[in-house]
Amino acid sequence: MSFDLLAPHYCWMEFILAGEKLQRCRTAFLDRIASHKNILVLGEGNGRFLSELLFANRTARITCVDSSAKMLCCAATRLAHQNISTNRIEFTHRDILDWTLPNQQFDAIVSHFFLDCFTSNQLESIISRIATATRPEGIWLISDFHEPSRGFAKWRARAILWLMYRFFRSITKIPARYLIAPDAPLQRNGFQLRERKFAEWDLLHSDLWQRA
Fold it and tell me: Whose CB among 8, 26, 188, 202 lies 3.0–4.6 Å from 148's, allowing a Cys bridge?
């Protein structure tokens, strides 16, 4: 899986296809981690959330993990253009599936439009490993796509998701063939859903999970 081919184009593609909708989802619970000290960001992409996080939280140490070197470069370039220091960020170019987590515990995890890339078994493995590196009462912010349960919104979402997975599987080789909700493995690993916000006919959601 690699987003290197999309990295130079991802920003304008997102703006044309979704405007600010995805960014609003990413930042829906940003204020909840404004005072956290050790934050892990998974699959950040081109740095739109990261720049907002650095403004909102002036003291945190941030570990930013992405399998795309070009996406990490885009994120660092975005911050440089905004005159934002990267001194508090550790950019890590690794695939989450084989990344050895550092010997520390994070008090906040962030994964926006990231978990939808993986199969059920991979989600189990990723969430289990991240859980062991999360402090008790640690927060996990998640934004992602969602398939409503019925009506026009369901069929609209199905069409959009079908096209989305066809595109990303062909270009980036993501493992997932369809959307898998991470709720069950999160619960099995001690996380509880504290709050969820829906948007765009319930196609998008932003979650705040907390480790019990």
Answer: 202
Tell me the DSSP string of 98-115: T----SS-EEEEEEES-G
Taking only the tens place, the pLDDT of each residue in 106-150 is 999 999 999 999 999 999 999 999 999 999 999 999 999 999 999
What tokens were used for 171? Answer: 């270009």
| pLDDT band (50, 70, 90) for residue 104 | confident
Cβ within 8 Å of residue 47, ≥6 positions away = 74, 75, 76, 77, 78, 79
- Give the three-class secondary structure for 15: helix
State pTM to two decimals: 0.96
In whole angstroms, how large is the CA radius of gyration of the chain?
Answer: 16
From edge to edge, which strands make up the β-sheet containing 191-199?
89-93, 61-66, 38-42, 106-112, 134-145, 204-211, 191-199
Residue 108 CB-half CA count within 13 A = 24
Asked if residues 42 and 94 have their Cβ atoms less than 8 Å apart, the reply is no
Q: Which domains are present in the chain?
A: 10-211 (3.40.50.150)
82's tokens: 């905004």
Instruction: Name the strand (E) or helix (H) holding 41.
Output: strand 38-42
Identify whether the C-beta of residue 175 lies closer than 8 Å to the C-beta of residue 122: yes
Token pair of 35, please? 């005072």
